[in-house]
Amino acid sequence: MEPAKGKMRTSSNLLLRITDICKVHSVGVAENVGGKPKADSTGGSSEDGAHLKVHPHQVSDHESCSGSSTARYEEAVVEKLLEAISCLKLAYVKVQQAHVPYDPEKIAAAGEHFASELEGTSGLKDLYVSANKWSNPMYQSHVSSRIHEHQKLAVDLQADICKKDSELVVLRAELEELERSNMELKEEVDRRAMHTENKIGIGKGELMDVFIELFEGSSKHIHDFTKLVVSWMKVSGWDLGISKFPIDKSVVYEKRSHKKYGVEAYFARAMLMGTKEEYFSMDSYDNVMSFKDPFDALMEAPNSAFGRFCREKYLVAVPRSMEDSFLGNLDHRAFVERGGHPRTQFYQTFAKMARHVWALLTVARYLKPRAEMFFVKTGVQFQKKHMESVPAKLTTEEAKFSVGFTVMPGFKIGCTVIRCKVYLSTLDARHF
């Protein structure tokens, strides 16, 4: 029964407050005409109204929205209404007092105060309406439905955010991959642009001019590789005079150092002769020749036509005994036989020579008419039209010599002759 007693006590208090408010009377005008009003007649100091000045209590939205305190909220609204009425009556008394004696400034101030109190009183309507709305089950159901609707929308939005985040991760990965690919393509374009001057392409001029350029390049690189081999032979103690290089023993060398031309002739024959047709392809020509270092072409496509040509020619041109003597083992040969390309100075120098020879033989097969290789036999009389002596001799002396052996073969392309390079000896001359 305690709640009932509490409710009865609250109702009694409200009735007493209403009774007190009804005791407030208007100021008598004739009572103090011409004199000053009593001290207890001023706003807030009269006996009847002094205890009516109550500090208003702000009711929070949390309290008003709580379903368990709706009745307390209504009582608070009524309490606030009674306080507002008390303040409004006291403000009206001040307006009356401002007229006795008549004071325009006090009348204006009292009027503004009265209007402010009246505006505050009218605001209590919204509090009461709010209390009634929250006490209405239909309104509560409507608000609850809206809350659930917004919660569901928030869940959907969160799921959409997670989905977008996942898509963003995928797109970011794709972007990084595209940027990496673009960087690689840019590097490839820069590399090709940088190596354009080193590329011996068919488009640079007539095919015949390209072939002649390749012939000179092949001859130079065979000579350079021979110099490397000869230097290693000297270190390893090889005797060029008793080597197994296929040079006619009847050849008389002008100088002992000229025996190196016999080694050069050996590598020229090994590289230029006995090559399979399947190793030559114009489709891969431009790509192979675009690399500044031919070893990079081998790394890009180890089993390409050029890669197979390079492996086969290494096994043919470099004898087992030579490799074992130079390197102390046969690891290079074993690696090449397994399909690899050793990353060593010796093999890289060989690859430079092999690329020019491969390009020369490739273009030779696509010339119209096709280029035909020729060698000059030992003992043939020297003819300047078809031959070039190495080392170069005086023109008046060349007629006294005959061919000892062909150092670099020549080519015939229709009526055009690219002279071979020969070493001249003092053998008896035979007709060519």
UniProtKB/TrEMBL annotation:
For whether the record's keyword set contains Nucleotide-binding, the answer is no
The source's superkingdom equals Eukaryota
Domain DUF641: where? Answer: 70-187
Entry-linked Pfam families? DUF641 (PF04859), GIL1_IRKI_C (PF24994)
Residue span, GIL1/IRKI C-terminal domain:
373-423
Which InterPro entries does this UniProt record tie to the protein? DUF641_pln, GIL1-like, GIL1_IRKI_C
**Annotated region Disordered: where?**
32-67
Keywords attached to this entry: Coiled coil
Coiled-coil annotation: which residues?
168-195
Q: Which GO terms describe its biological process?
A: negative gravitropism; response to red or far red light
Q: Under what name is this protein listed?
A: DUF641 domain-containing protein
Query: Which species does this protein come from?
Result: Panicum virgatum (Blackwell switchgrass)
